[in-house]
Amino acid sequence: MTKSFVNLRINADRFRARFDALASIGARPEGGAHRPAFNQAHLEARRWFLETARAAGLETAVDGVGNHSGLLRCGPSGALILLLGSHLDTVPRGGRFDGALGVMAALEVLQTVKDHGLTLDTHLEAVDFTDEEGHYANFVGSLGLAGRLQAAHIQSPRGGRERFREALGQAGLSEESLFTAGRDPASLAGYLELHIEQGGRLAEQKVNIGIVTGIVGIRSFKICFLGRADHAGTKPIAHRLDAAQGASAFTLAVREVMLAEFPRCVATVGDMGFAPGAFNVVPEIVTVSLEFRADEEAKLDRIEARLRQQALDAAERFGLKLEIRHLDSTAPAPMDKGVQAAIAGACEMLSLGYLPLPSGAGHDAQCLAPVCPTGMIFLPSIDGFSHSAREFTRWEDCVHGANALLHTALTLAQS
Ligand code: HGY
Ligand code: MN
Ligand code: MN
Q1: For residues 158 and 160, what is the distance between their CA atoms, to the nearest angstrom?
Q2: Whole-model pTM over 0.90
Q3: In the 8-state DSSP scheme, what is residue 280?
């Protein structure tokens, strides 16, 4: 950290005003935000972000995978680009902080650098990545920018291929354009992301900043239990091929297996669909969404084998057929040690306490980590709530985090 920057701080009022303006787009009456990828509020939030970045004097762009960004050319011609960012999409009925805080902090850092006329060794770019939450497929934007998006990853979009194509079209994109956004890794100086922890460790230990050491891998599947539609009034229960029984037995077994055999990992059945879905028809088909997470591929392999077996056992028990469709997988990723050290240096300079910790949540950073030095800064989530209107981080922590992002970026942009 060169002496001249030590007293530099972000403009907290401007940061707050922008965060609140963004939070109003797609705001829910009970609090939180509803901006699933490509819904009207998400598209509006992206337009607003570009307008705000343009008004801040940044060069704006939208790439073939829909990533929206503002670029500050504060380095010499031909300089590498240090990326900062996160995502403006949310889970359905999500929180105001998840993703949005990181994009607003990135914008604030770039404008602070611009306002002070700083010249650095790299350019700086603030990015809003497409569909981080996997409304259609996990991390489409960051995988696309990293040049790591595979056709198989969008083969079976959640919610169906037709809806995905339509949503892409409405956003001016296409399945083909998604594969045109890859950056040359040699052009990237690194990637930094500020994000809420979405767990309770920092708040419990009363620490200002989390320095992420690594991010879990995630695999997701659609599992169909196939039975037989029958009359709910005349078909004796013992003679039914009831898909709901298989799906329910499987869902309970997931919890038992994870608690007993993988206590430090997670698996979630987040959605269940019934067909034909009528009071008076024994369910013919029940489709279950499954995702599970672990910090190593070998553990993910073991969990996958055990849960596949549980699905087979549940189907067999109730005389059902079974279809298991793999949707997508994202690898676990360690965070760059040099970037972690730069974050620690910025925290020490700012007299902020910090704690190295792994991330149980997935992030765009895990898609960038294989192609450029990548790190994440976490902020305390009060009571560990996230992915709901309860999500909350104290504003003073947000300002601490944005200043830590600023000084980490200044360190990385001068080395
Ligand atoms: O699911 C996650 O961990 C992230 O919020 N997409
Ligand atoms: Mn997020
Ligand atoms: Mn999220």
Answers
A1: 5
A2: yes
A3: T
